[in-house]
Amino acid sequence: MHQARLYQAREFAELAGVTVRTLHHYDRLGLLAPSGRTEAGYRLYGDRDLVRLEQILALKFIGFPLQEIRRLLKRDAKDLAAALRRQRSMILEKRRLLDLAVEAIQRAEKAVASGELEDWGAIQKIIEVIHMQSNMEWINKYYSEQALEAIAARQVPTETIEQGQRDWADLIKEVEAAVGEDPASPGVQALAARWRKLIEAFTGGNPEVQAGLNKLYADRSNWPATMKKPCSDAASALMCQAMALSKQK
Fold first, then answer.
1. Which parts of the chain are beta strand (E)?
2. pLDDT in tens, 163-183
3. For the chain: N or C, fewer Cβ within 10 A?
4. pTM of the prediction?
């Protein structure tokens, strides 16, 4: 019977393209324990360890933190598939933002080449995209793992997302104009109904996603400076009052 070959840490590290320090670190984290040890206590790794290491490195490459990778590799394939869908969704969003940044940089290059240095709109767009990326990563902390997986699992066309952004922009303008009006008035109630409909379009009716959204907006005082509030506090309060009244009916 063929006996699987075992490698000492240095040889295995060279074979896998990592450092011995990385192997020791993964062992301490419970990510990759050696298959055995020599009589002198040195770590020994085999073919199964190489497959495990490949999984770790692949998940790390696409953005999973090591602690989450450890949890994922202890789960079944269904859980791993759901987590991968979520990560794919996040990477696609990052790619969209990078595409926006590339377009803005190209505009800036053309402006510089033509001597139109007064066109700072392109530079501002680059900064805006960078902030969008940072804010997206920061926002995720308010959502549970189940909520993030639910968001990732939804396949929403880009056109639908862009239309939703336009709908929000139009609605917020109308709500700002209605500040000071009676929350129970028909006009404000109509605005509240549209507001609720757009929120449901984002949450998909998922209570976990709704809970994350509620946490995010309840913590507005701690939002980073680069994250702009979608509307004034007065407009937000008006919608909260109007929707609370509509639930009482």
1. 7-8, 36-37, 43-45
2. 888 999 999 999 999 999 999
3. N
4. 0.54
